[in-house]
Amino acid sequence: MNLVINNTMKMITEQQKEKENTAVFMVGEQLKEIIGNSEQLAELVLQDLRNPDMSLEKCEKKIKARADELHKKNGGGSACVNPKDAEKIIRDFYGLHMTEISAAESRPKVVSLAELM
Predict the structure, then answer these.
(1) How far apart are the C-alpha atoms of 97 and 89, rounded to whole Å?
(2) Cα 51 to the chain's mean position, in Å?
């Protein structure tokens, strides 16, 4: 695993410590999935996580605010945000709108026979 990706995953894991089975922990898990193998996304997140205002906890508060908004609108006994909405909030919070980069990184490089010769 790339050093930047590894350092980012370690920082996420550190912010998840002692928060197992909480919404903050789940934000960290979803963030890890979003980053995947993208060095560019990992670098953005690593820079952000060094800022206390960009912690997993602060991001989770954005998701909770959306859940509270939905609860107020829909009523019921509890409120939650679906995974797609949570991903959008996480991407917005950390500025991870580089889906074309992560998609390009995940595609295998195709080499023609002409290029090989």
Answers:
(1) 11
(2) 16
Cα separations in angstroms, 81 against 78, 94, 101: 11, 18, 26
Q: What is the pLDDT of residues 75-103, one digit of tens each?
A: 877 788 999 999 999 999 999 985 545 44
The angle, 0 to 180 degrees and rounded to 10, between the axes of the packed helices 39-49 and 83-94 is 70
Place of tokens 């909405």: 85
Q: Is 31 left (phi over 0), alpha (psi -120 to 50) or beta?
A: alpha
Angle (CA) 28 100 52, round 5°: 30
Amino acid (1-letter code) at residue 97: H
Structure tokens at 115: 């290029």
